[in-house]
């Protein structure tokens, strides 16, 4: 399976390609292509991938954490009783 470099249009095996670490939508054959593409245009179109941006939904993350903590504290109380 080959993927085309977003900048130089070279086709390379998927395993050799690097994804843009922010949006995961574009692939590059090398760090040079990534850097050049970023400067040329991608910085204007790049959007942080939702799964990489917990800051866009902090309530969900905090809710999960406090729920987990409350659960373990509760089971501790059960053990003491
Ligand atoms: Zn390239
Ligand atoms: Zn990007």
Automatic annotation (TrEMBL):
Gene3D superfamilies in UniProt: 6.10.140.2220
Region of interest (Disordered), residue spans: 52-81
GO terms for MF: zinc ion binding
Protein's UniProt keywords contain Lipid metabolism: no
SUPFAM superfamilies, per the entry: HIT/MYND zinc finger-like
Name of the protein described by the UniProt record: MYND finger protein
Keywords attached to this entry: Metal-binding, Zinc, Zinc-finger
InterPro entries with a match to the protein in the record: Znf_MYND (IPR002893)
Domain MYND-type: 5-46
Record carries keyword Zinc: yes
């Amino acid at each position: 399976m080959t993927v085309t470099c977003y900048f130089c249009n070279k086709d390379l095996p998927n395993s050799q390609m690097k994804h843009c670490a922010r949006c995961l939508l574009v692939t590059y054959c090398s760090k040079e292509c990534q850097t050049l593409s970023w400067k040329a245009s991608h910085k204007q179109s790049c959007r942080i991938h939702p799964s990489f941006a917990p800051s866009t939904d902090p309530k969900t993350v905090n809710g999960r954490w406090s729920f987990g903590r409350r659960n373990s504290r509760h089971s501790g109380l059960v053990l003491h009783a």
